[in-house]
Amino acid sequence: MAQSWLHRANQDYTNTVVSNIYSYHNGTAPSSAYQYGEEEFIAKQMEELKDYDTKRSSLVIALFLFSLWMIINNYSVVARRNRETEQELGATKELAGRDPLTGVKSKLAFTEREKEMDAAIEEGRADHFAVVVCDLNGVKRINDTKGHKAGDEYIRSASVLICNSFKRSPVFRIGGDEFVVILKGYDYEQRTAILEALDRQVEENIRTKQVIVSTGLADYRPGQDRKLKAVFERADVLMYKRKRKLKEMGAVSRE
């Protein structure tokens, strides 16, 4: 655009110079022009044309550099705003992915993980894993008799117990007193021993009237399970069996 403007401006000034020279020859130029000889007058006109061209070129370069600066500056502003937006979205997603009471992963995070794992199962690239369903005994009674603050503390204590047992696996709180753990790697390989240790601790907690967590564990069956939900449901059934057993041992029920 600037180059086009420069071309038009130069053409206009060139026409002016040609007109001045033509007027000089016709004798219609201003009287001041005739103080120069013909060659000197023409040389002066050409020099002015050259100076004009130089000045116009400098102006165009300046305009170009200014435009370039504006583009770069605007790009920097847009890029910065995009980074800030991405950071805000990331922070919001991180916040939404965390349970505010316990700090473990939220139900939303579990839903996203479930979708990812369902896709991996469907595409035949799912690794071996297991699901542990955890349900807390007696939360409702604590809320009713001691208040929700005590109930929240009970839930936090249960969360700590679960996380300390399955240290290398993601723990999700999917309901008021419900947690899910997805076991992979070391925790998957040692799942039986880890769960037995947790169960022993829970049984000791019945005696000392500490937090009680009912658990059920189920393994993923390649070629048979089409969804994570199928593994979850088997673990859920085992969790309720464990809850009944703990109740028989003296644990307070949900009611």
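the 2nd protein, sequnce then structure:
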Amino acid sequence: MSNRDKIALIMAGGQIIHKWDAEGVSPIEKEALSAYLAKENREKIYVVDWSYQPVCHYTLRMCSDLIQLAGTQIEEGAAGVVVTCGTQALTEIAYFADLIWSYPQPLVFTASISYAETLGSQTGLLLSQAARAAESRVCWGQGVLVCLQDKIYAASEISHISNYNHVGYGALPGGPIAEFSEPLGLLVFLRSPRRGRIMNIGTPPARNVEILDASLGGGDMLLNALLDSRVSDLDGLVLAAFGGGDLSPSWVPLLRKVMRDEVPVALASRCLVGRVQPEGDFEGCSKRLLEMGLINAGTLTPLQARIRLAVGVGAELSGQDLRAYMLDE
């Protein structure tokens, strides 16, 4: 039977497609998944197995394979794609996908902290809502989306706030871009997210881009360890800096050594809703760091900056082109 104009459901793991009982955790069999779908969706969806690994086992290269698989479904006639995955790195995977997803058809991620068939399980609801978003024309051209909490979020905006309840995600300051209105479950579109430059879906992300967190009096030992043995292996480095982008002055000479090896170093704020602000005039301030050659990550979170830097370096951007890409200019 042809899958043209249907919704592809890619099973990429997560509690949402696993059952838990006295014998332990086990995945829902592909053939049994239809029982969790609303009746009106069962004929519209076809299932694609991919991976049942814990999301902490993923790499960006694995995520690239996943997104290319989703793209293949669109090229073969699917009307949209839904992907299940674990909650722990959902925001990172979806953000990476958004940077390279150039199709107008929706790519919708969904996940749950609860296993299927346990008290509070939302497997059926989330799968059905995600499928409805994936087939909805109002979601076309909106980039990669995340379906959670009766809402649709832009992958470029969503944040993981809590890991132990169902209301664990949010998008500050804009909120969701659509929501399901009960009791009829109507999909109400609220706004369109801003999308910047989209890379080719086949762009291989750089393998070794790391994050170093600023903390009071900390970090020097890790920076020195990089310089002693592994800096030559780095494809890029993101610094999760204080507030508007400031760092301990003890980092400055160490960063100069990193940059002498032509490693791109991006400066991001460690705040949940932050922005690098080149102010002040003291050793370690963001103004001097940017003048020194660090790359401004603007409003990106450190996790987003790492992924964006990996994609930019993987696309062989450098110099001003890489700087413009990091600022989404």
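The domain at 7-189 is CATH 3.40.50.1170 (Rossmann fold). The mean pLDDT is 94.
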